[in-house]
Amino acid sequence: MATDTNRLRVDQDGVFTNVERTLLTSWFDQQPLTDAVRIKLDDALAQLGFGKECRPYSQTSAAVAHILLEAIEDRLPVWACWKGDNLIRSRRYREPHQKPQRQTALLPSELFAINWATSGPGFDWPVTYKLVWTPIYDRYVVTASADCPDAFGYADFALGHFGRSDNVGQSVIEIIKCDWTMQRDECSQPRWEDLISTGLIKWAAVEQLAEQVWPKDDDDDDLTNGDLDGGDDTATLR
Predict the structure, then answer these.
(1) How far is residue 228 CA from its own chain's centroid?
(2) For the whole model, what pTM was predicted?
(3) 103, 156, 83: which is closest to 126 by C-alpha?
(4) Is 3 exposed, middle or buried (CB count within 10 Å of its CB: 0-12, 13-18, 19+)?
(5) Whole-number Å distance between alpha carbons of 171 and 191
(6) Cα(223)–Cα(56) distance, rounded to whole angstroms?
(7) In the chain, N or C: fewer CB atoms in 10 Å?
(8) In a 3-state reduction of DSSP, which class is residue 206?
(9) Beta strand segments in 42-138, E
(10) Cα three-residue angle 79-81-84, rounded to 5 degrees
(11) Contact 137, 124 (CB under 8 A)
(12) pLDDT above 90 covers what percent of the chain?
């Protein structure tokens, strides 16, 4: 119990534990703090349950998403079915006593959600994209969440990050474009089938981005700065 209590104790900043800081510092490629230096990256991954490889993504990117999406994990996509009287779910949810007592809540914003494909009745492959402001590190993070870990070993991944002074719309688009291009080239992923919902990213921008990654013709129009609902005001999201 003492080990669990220590693992869940947030640092003096009141937001992240030392284990989480080790992972975040590594992923953001920032200079680690003294306490975080004492924990090796492999040990931090193991403590949070991310010891298994998940190529082409990294274990650290999965662990970072696990940390940043904690507050809304029960609202992320989840595949479920009944087996007798038992409801089987593809996600494991943390109980309140299993979560660090953060003084600042991490509240992701909805970007949009897609369905990659429908492989059979009731068998969709949805993914929802979120934007999270990360205090202490002063970075926005784009995440992707599937309804199960079948595709890559984990359900959630941090795709990329950018700073406060960067254009939010352009940065989000470039990060997701890089991810879709990687899946197209390394995983032979065809274009997604359906746009399920939109949030900060407009419908037209998602469609235009898909056309850039999986073009139907040779035209490749550039996305504009107005890809987020709310225009430039969105850049002040915290």
Answers:
(1) 18
(2) 0.86
(3) 156
(4) exposed
(5) 21
(6) 27
(7) N
(8) helix
(9) 80-83, 86-89, 109-120, 123-134
(10) 160
(11) no
(12) 66
Query: Which secondary-structure segment (H or E) carries 141?
Result: strand 139-146
| Residue 12, CB-side half-sphere exposure with 13 Å CA sphere | 4
Q: What is the pLDDT of residue 85?
A: 73
Mean pLDDT of 216-238: 48
CA 131/CA 107 separation, integer angstroms? 9
Among the listed residues 33, 16, 168, the one whose alpha carbon sits nearest the alpha carbon of residue 105: 16
Please give the C-alpha separations between residue 233 and each of 12, 138, 178, 230, in angstroms, as whole numbers.
Answer: 32, 18, 25, 6
Residue 97: pLDDT band (50, 70, 90) is confident
123: three-class secondary structure by DSSP: strand
CA 158 to chain centre: 4
Sign of torsion over alpha carbons 137, 34, 22, 67: negative
Distance CA(84)–CA(69), nearest Å, equals 31
* pLDDT of 145 higher than 50: yes
186-201: pLDDT as tens digits: 999 999 999 999 999 9
CB atoms within 10 A of CB 121: 6
Residue 226 DSSP SS3: coil
Indicate whether 238 pLDDT > 70.
no
Structure tokens at 208: 């235009």
Query: Is the pLDDT score of 71 beyond 90?
Result: yes
Mean per-residue pLDDT of the chain: 85
Lookup: tokens for 73: 């994990």
Question: What pLDDT is recorded for position 186?
Answer: 97
d(CA 59, CA 154): 9
The answer on pLDDT for 46 being more than 60 is yes
